[in-house]
Amino acid sequence: MGIVCADGHSGFDPDNKLVRLADDTEVGYDVLVVAPGIQLDWDQLPGVSDTLGRDGVSSNYGLDLAPKTWDMIRGMKKGTAVFMMPAGPIKCAGAPQKIAYLAADHWRKQGVLKNIEIVMALPTPGMFGVPEFAKVLEQVVTRYGIDVRFETVVSEVKPDSKELVLKSMSGDSTSTIGYDFLHAVPPQSAPNWVKCSPLSIPGDAKGWVDIDKNTMQHVRYPDVFALGDAGSSPNSKTGAAIRKQAPVVVQNVIDQLKGQEINRHYDGYASCPIVTARNKMLLAEFDYTMRPHKTVPLVNTQKERWDMYLLKRYGLPFMYWHFLMKGKAMTTPAAFGS
Ligand SMILES: Cc1cc2nc3c(=O)[nH]c(=O)nc-3n(C[C@H](O)[C@H](O)[C@H](O)COP(=O)(O)OP(=O)(O)OC[C@H]3O[C@@H](n4cnc5c(N)ncnc54)[C@H](O)[C@@H]3O)c2cc1C
């Protein structure tokens, strides 16, 4: 029988090489590729669900909420705007910063930036894990006058008093701050039905599918592979990473089916196109070494650039629909999967 989690959802039975669907149908497999994405754990940020989408609180992590984010930013003329990032892996770790820079640039152009205090709460000790890109982002936050609180998370939203509880990552200090606008980002984890299955890392609260970070093969079930946001590989969770993981998984699955040794390796490549103004972008490309891993020829991508903004605005959507979605991404430089 398939594995059914406590919530009754369908599950994996890797010992018998089958999955169970929502209608209880069981499907056998020779090789299973798991790619269900990530779960937004809004319930892990107390208070936020009572106010999401209204009273100055929005999030680009909700399809329906993203337009409201922009409406709220355009409507703001003074007060305190807080941009937060939760602890733990999230999809596109640059997204919580990008929206802060777009907002700040808009307020600057409207002449109201001086009336708005911008606070950015980051769980990390620096602006970015790769020093070369962190240095550029330090200049960006200085330019906009953003008050960055490092190693700090928002632990509670209090909509009635329009306050946030800020907690240090060490857990030994808390403080309260008022807000007029909050860009909220939820803690994230593997979907619950993956978390409670035998495929997840034993004892890991986030429940990622337990794979080898290079081969993308499950560490206990060789007939199972995973890629994308739900996998345990410690890359930055981005579409750009998947663009490089997919060919590795395809070849390794073929070799596994043929009974041959698998030998294709993913190097942790990810790219984060960080929009730093309405018309500027920093293309951060890196891999497991946490060093820059440049794939765009000729141009210096270790600075904010107008041409990289054009790539993001016009080039990437074209590449996405015409190459990535058609399985032709191998013909483009890796960054175009951003
Ligand atoms: C605001 C924001 C900005 C981003 N910007 C960038 C960027 O600039 N560049 C970049 O590279 N990445 C970016 N990303 C990250 C990127 O979107 C994700 O990393 C990527 O989509 C993950 O792909 P995935 O296939 O793992 O998961 P998903 O894209 O979430 O796909 C998973 C699929 O599995 C399906 N599924 C889940 N459970 C089941 C089930 N039980 N049965 C059947 N189907 C199921 C889902 O419906 C979904 O279609 C951004 C993300 C956000 C939120």
Explain the layout of strands and helices:
Blueprint: E1 12-13, E2 18-20, E3 26-28, E4 32-34, E5 39-40, E6 57-58, H1 66-75, E7 79-84, H2 95-110, E8 116-121, H3 131-144, E9 147-149, E10 152-158, E11 163-168, E12 174-178, E13 181-183, E14 188-189, H4 192-195, E15 224-226, H5 239-257, E16 270-277, E17 280-286, H6 306-324
Parallel strand pairs: 4-15, 6-13, 7-8, 7-13, 8-9
Antiparallel strand pairs: 1-2, 2-3, 5-14, 10-11, 11-12, 16-17
Bound molecules: flavin-adenine dinucleotide.
Flavin-adenine dinucleotide binds next to helix 5.
Describe the structure.
The chain has 338 residues and is α/β, with parallel strands linked by helices. It is 24% helix and 21% strand. The chain is built from 6 helices and 17 strands. The protein has helices at 66-75, 95-110, 131-144, 192-195, 239-257, 306-324; strands at residues 12-13, 18-20, 26-28, 32-34, 39-40, 57-58, 79-84, 116-121, 147-149, 152-158, 163-168, 174-178, 181-183, 188-189, 224-226, 270-277, 280-286.
Compact description:
The chain is of the alpha/beta class. It has six helices and 17 strands.
- Structural class given helices, strands, pairing? alpha/beta
Low-confidence stretches: none
| Portion in strands | 15-25%
Whole-number tally of structural domains: 3
The first-level CATH class name of the largest domain: Alpha Beta
Strands of the widest sheet, in order across it, are: 6-13-7-8-9
Q: Report the average pLDDT across residues.
A: 93
Reading the helices and strands in chain order gives: EEEEEEHEHEHEEEEEEHEHEEH
CATH level-two architecture of the largest domain: 3-Layer(bba) Sandwich
